[in-house]
Amino acid sequence: MSSSLAGAFGIAALFVAVLALVFAIQALRAHSGTSKSAGVAPSLAPEPEPQQPEAKPGTVRSELRKLGKEIEVTRGELRQTLQHLAVVRYDAFGDTGGKLSWSMALLDDKGDGVVLTSINSRADARTYAKEVRAFASEAKLSPEEEEAIETLRKESEQTS
Fold it and tell me: Residue 121 carries which DSSP code?
């Protein structure tokens, strides 16, 4: 066998030996990482999960936590918006048709908001706004205004 061929086999054998050493070291690290101290065999019982460290800024986990907090704040603010709407149309006077008069309740989740009414006749139109607190008003309400508020109160009870 030539000396160059023997040298190539020697280098290949050295490479395989180094590769085997690297795998052996990784296996030892993995084995020692599962046991609490060196020289103690790992137990068969699962170890408790360690507390997750605080996510580093800019990581996906950190961004998800921020988004979760922002969603909770947004939900709280949304409960206070005038998001529920009910409209009742009617003929306020016998000489007009087409149900041009209307009462509209605009309320938040707690039943706070406003009821707006527009009464239309042949000669003019009048508009009224009345404050609503907890699905009730201190001002005297027309039957149509009460109907609009009652519709939203029933919807609120169904979603609760």
Answer: -
